[in-house]
Amino acid sequence: MNKQLFNFFLLTISIIILNSCATKMPIEKGDFKETNLVELVKLDSTIILDIRYATNNNFVGQPVYKEARAFLQKDAAESLKRINASLKPLGLGIMVFDGYRPWDVTKIFYDVTSKENKKFVADPKEGSRHNRGCAVDVTLYDLKTKKEIQMPGAYDEMTERSYYDYTGGTEEQRKMRDLLIEKMQADGFTVYKYEWWHFDFKDWQKYRITNVPFSEIK
Fold first, then answer.
1. Three-class DSSP labels, 167-198
2. Rounded (5°) CA angle 88-89-93
3. Which residues, given as ranges, of the chain have pLDDT below 70?
4. What are the DSSP calls for 102-162, one per residue?
5. Which of 213, 191, 204 lies closest to 64 in space, CA to CA?
6. First vs last Cα of the chain: how many Å apart?
7. How many CB atoms lie within 10 A of CB 52?
8. Which of the residues 50, 88, 208, 214 has the least number of beta carbons within 10 Å of its own beta carbon?
9. For the structural domain made of 3-23+35-216, what CATH number should be given?
10. How far is 128 from 135, CA to CA, in rounded Å?
11. Whole-Å CA distances, 25 to 46, 82, 103, 208
């Protein structure tokens, strides 16, 4: 069985499990801020997208999104816009791999990921900060060529090369990774220690876990 067929098999099984309600979306109590998801490219057209979860080019091996779009809570989106602007004098911009993620997709990711790699995905019993619209997966791109800047590890690579403090790769790759982290953390985001591309917004706990598909976001 080839890798793509195997991943498709796992995805199918996970959907069956999901539909059987083996794990349900967490029910949260308390007061939360109103969800206000903003589409990033409408806020800033110079933020570019590479939504791999809408393609076969991801660790699942199959599309899990029907639309190649990215959203964040308004405060987080405004912060990302400022970060993008601060990179322009350096000839760089923000490329987004993923933003808000419906809870159903987090469940799929968890089910298809091996036990030893669970640290790279969120437990659906607790929900993801992506589900709250307060996490974003990003990298840098060259403003002139529109090409992705090379980092020490690839997006969604489940190895130590993804760690934010990985000491391998080239000096230039580490420099670009550290620049991205510096810019993001200077404006309200915190990097996830196992994924150089994943950043959580400072107020993530103030928003509810959400399971609304992209097509229903107004």
1. CCCCHHHHHHHHHHHHHHHCCCEEEECCEEEE
2. 20
3. 1-22
4. -HHHHHHHHHHS-GGGGGGS--TTT--TTTTT-EEEEEEEETTT-PBPP-SS-TT--SGGG
5. 213
6. 42
7. 20
8. 88
9. 3.30.1380.10
10. 8
11. 34, 33, 7, 11
List all residues 6 or more positions away from 176 whose beta carbon is below 8 Å from its beta carbon.
Answer: 140, 149, 150, 151
Q: What is the pLDDT of residue 26?
A: 83
List, as own/partner pairs, every contact residues 209-212 make where C-beta atoms lie below 8 angstroms and the sequence separation is at least 24, other chains included. Answer: 209/25, 209/26, 209/28, 209/103, 209/127, 209/128, 209/131, 209/132, 210/35, 210/100, 210/102, 210/103, 210/131, 210/132, 210/133, 211/25, 211/102, 211/103, 211/104, 211/131, 212/102
Q: What is the pTM assigned to this prediction?
A: 0.88
Residue 115: HSE in the Cβ half-sphere, 13 Å Cα cutoff: 0
Beta-carbon contacts of residue 142 (< 8 Å; ≥ 6 apart)? 91, 92, 149
State the pLDDT at residue 19.
46
* Amino acid at site 147: K
What is the C-alpha separation between 7 and 3, in angstroms, rounded? 6
Amino acid at 118: K
Query: Residue 197 class from Cβ within 10 Å (0-12 exposed, 13-18 middle, 19+ buried)?
Result: buried
Q: Match 């967490």 to its residue by tokens.
A: 26
Question: What is the per-residue pLDDT for 11?
Answer: 59
Q: In what order do the strands lie in the sheet with 135-142?
A: 48-49, 92-98, 135-142, 195-201, 189-192
